[in-house]
Amino acid sequence: xxxxxxxxxxxxxxxxxxxxxxxxxxxxxxxxxxxxxxxxxxxxxxxxxxxxxxxxxxxxxxxxxxxxxxxxxxxxxxxxxxxxxxxxxxxxxxxxxxxxxxxxxxxxxxxxxxxxxxxxxxxxxxxxxxxxxxxxxxxxxxxxxxxxxxxxxxxxxxxxxxxxxxxxxxxxxxxxxxxxxxxxxxxxxxxxxxxxxxxxxxxxxxxxxxxxxxxxxxxxxxxxxxxxxxxxxxxxxxxxxxxxxxxxxxxxxxxxxxxxxxxxxxxxxxxxxxxxxxxxxxxxxxxxxxxxxxxxxxxxxx
Amino acid sequence: xxxxxxxxxxxxxxxxxxxxxxxxxxxxxxxxxxxxxxxxxxxxxxxxxxxxxxxxxxxxxxxxxxxxxxxxxxxxxxxxxxxxxxxxxxxxxxxxxxxxxxxxxxxxxxxxxxxxxxxxxxxxxxxxxxxxxxxxxxxxxxxxxxxxxxxxxxxxxxxxxxxxxxxxxxxxxxxxxxxxxxxxxxxxxxxxxxxxxxxxxxxxxxxxxxxxxxxxxxxxxxxxxxxxxxxxxxxxxxxxxxxxxxxxxxxxxxxxxxxxxxxxxxxxxxxxxxxxxxxxxxxxxxxxxxxxxxxxxxxxxx
Lengths: 302, 302
Description:
- The structure is a homodimer.
- By secondary structure, the first copy, chain A, is α/β, with parallel strands linked by helices.
- Chain A has helices at residues 10-21, 34-40, 83-87, 106-114, 155-166, 177-198, 202-207, 209-227, 237-249, 257-263, 270-283, 289-300; strands spanning 2-6, 25-29, 42-46, 51-53, 57-59, 68-73, 91-99, 119-130, 135-148, 171-173.
- In chain A, strands 1, 2, 3, 4, 5, 6, 7, 8, 9 and 10 form a ten-stranded mixed β-sheet that branches.
- The termini of chain A are far apart.
- The interface between A and B is medium-sized, with 21 and 21 residues.
């Protein structure tokens, strides 16, 4: 399958490399890593074993990639103003677009520009960081839940899940993408925001009883916002929040991307991870006061 | 009046200097500024006019001060474990103790050690910062509300207020010290904590609509905590919070002491300004969820 990767940050590089290693025909749109990858290929340092791709099809302009079967979007959402112009040159008549970006609003943006039927979304539970140009570090996890923006389990989403699985990436096609997005928010909202605000990794946050308590309260607010949406099945608040906390306690100390974005002076993904979820919860009659406070505090530092 | 100053930080130095200039007999317990003041006296750089005291009675040990008429306490509350041992050598049979420290719990600590009848408390709306050793910067404001720990308007508290007034410090004796303490908390809890957390001065916080809204919500929580206490008269939440915000908007950009403490790696006054007020509000049946969240975030950074 010919796949274009738009947004070759840590996530795009890692999944793209895994897919290419399994035999897929991968084309990366690159900015920061372009020169390094042209010269020496792409190095993946992974907890599951390092590998090196010496021949990597990388491009400076999406026009040079041309039409593909599937576009995978890994762009940071704070660059979403460029998203549609970057994706457009890759579209053939039947091209599908899978966005693995964080938060809410990304499928809607793509659907508005290119039609709802093209769009799939996915959430990635992935711990990666960018390394030196031409390298990516995979620190753990990596599972993807993906589904149709229009809902339901399609042949297309099952096929994509299979392609990821064959590449060694745990992947599940789900019928309720909205639920998957909110489940991921229950992790992103506390861990990304708190780590950016107080510059502690996830282990540091969980080791301090007051911030662990706060993480739990934030998760419960997000899940109550989720359960006010039209989900196929409600999220079990207590069970799911405890699962997320246990999952994170089993991780090695990890610095979420938002912590690194703040540290390195980049903007934060506040719109997708905070503003739109708060808006959607409110529209469904649910207040998330602690989430709002966290959003205020993060936005004050921008 | 012979007055001993315990805790010669910005507040202790400024009020001590003003009192000495007006003719009171002032004795400073000093640490950081001792050598500089011994050599070149104390320089006050004030919006109301600079002045210099060439002869300053300063001491390294409270034993060398001996009994005084009044002890004024300006110690940072995170050093309260040393408070009683520092005050004890200054006590004669009738010595009064006035604590101008931040937050709650200071009068109680002194009362437990030395008897309730000795204790007065005061809240200072004062913008000062320490400068180079031997100097203090008075950036604005300075009003004190003081009162008896046991309540009521005593001759002693009126007398003390008069002494401050004669020294050019606006000062009012109040019958309800508890109310004055909570009024001050309605300022300290939002502005100290938020400025320490996101390293913005009060003007920066108020210029950003989301943090201004958060400041107002924090104030309203604190006032609801206050009004659950046995006050002589309730605080008008709406009116008082708007007054505090207007008062702060009229100030020049000011970095609260907690912001500077965090910046310079010192501990924060979290017990007096957050933990005890949260405890007292809870004991009176009032939750302050945003104040609790701010406390958690600040404590996670300690």
